[in-house]
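hey m, so remember when u said the tokens were messed up on ur end? i reran from scratch. heres the input so u can diff it against urs
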Amino acid sequence: MATTVILVRHGETAWNLEQRYQGQEDSPLSDLGLFQARRVGQFLSKRPIAAVYTSDLGRAVQTAQLIAEHHQLTPTLDQRLREMSFGVWEGLTRKEVAERYPELYYGRLQDRSSHPIPGGEDPADVVRRFRGCLEELVDRHAGETIVVVSHGAALRLTLAALLEIPLSRSQCLSQSNGGISELAHSPKGSPCPWRVITINSTYHLL
């Protein structure tokens, strides 16, 4: 039986508002972010959710808790679902990064996978850890529906990998705060192991 995986990006944060790179640093959900997380929870409240898994970073945990409470569940935290580390860029605004690292910043706009950030995480490593976690979860919850709460870059990279899109083009997959992507994972041996139901749906936030 297929396992349904509902991927959710956390709600908007204070640093999102400031256009500041968060990576594996953290900032709390803004008022809008709390609203978005609550709307995701309400939207998924009628779905038969077996478990909620989340990155251990605070903004994701807050979002996951507001989803899990509708199902009398406690989110399970997993570091493998964390955001990509942005190294020396973390805590800086996009404007500050463009001023201090112009060649790298603009190079990454064209191809992020071949322009590593000093002290940052390689995109392939992000996919490796995230995908490893997903593979464990779909085996554990065969035939069930689960929610996985994570972060923009980590979700874009993982979705690209699952759909066999080059990681250098992962930025073409939008992941909005509070956005929902739903995939169905088929048993091993299927010609289409990951089938897309929707990517970055935000209708529930209107």
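this time it looks ok to me. The chain has a mean pLDDT of 95. if urs says something different then somethings off w ur setup not the seq
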